[in-house]
Amino acid sequence: MASVVAHYSASALTDRGLKRPSNEDAFGLSVEHGVYVVCDGMGGAAAGEVASTLAVAEVMQWLTQRPRTSPLPIEAAEAIAAANEAIFSRSQRNQKLNGMGTTLVALLVEDRRAWMVNVGDSRGYRLRGSRLEQITLDHSLVEEQIRAGQMSPEEAARSPLKNVITRALGTQSMVTPDIFEFETEPGDLFLLCSDGLVRELDDSLVESLLRLDATLEEMCSRLVEAAKEAGGHDNITCVLVRAES
User: Fold this and answer.
1) Which class would CATH give 7-137+165-244?
2) pLDDT by residue (tens digit) across 193-204?
3) What pTM was computed for the model?
């Protein structure tokens, strides 16, 4: 039986990339409260940046500054509902922000218990030992067609619809997140990232970069630089969280 995890450490980095005029990604983290979030905004002008920043602020405020009255996954669902409402109502009040939204992926930890939460196609991974596993499921048209057996991964990579997501915060009055529960083990390394990272790097390369003997800060830098070297077509954000023994 694995020993109890004593604590977690974390690092994060975001980059505009090489092609986009601004950075519409946002992240938040609190090692003290065990809350880590990445959001990737979308919308015209500055709307994407507004949506992602608002989502991170709402979720972090809800999960780090309020007294916890319910189990953490219930609190997380309530935090996402609050963020969704904040974005949706803002877009309804301001025509320039109409249609804005954001993806979200979050890791929540409480001792050895952990939850991954996602809406959209920002991803959450776990490296355990030498094996990298994607925990979240993309809410995207092509990924849902792959899971239904209607499209191959190769066809999805070439599809003109590969950027279409089927779920996002703020685009509708209500949204349902996926929540995955599991136990952590000492040495586990978690990656939260926007699609600007994994669109450029396949899982095998991400795994090799995460297996290097380096600090979390160095790993974040190497991931971002590798994505930029591969094209850097989108904003790039990663949050790394390690379960310490």
Assistant:
1) alpha beta
2) 999 999 999 999
3) 0.94
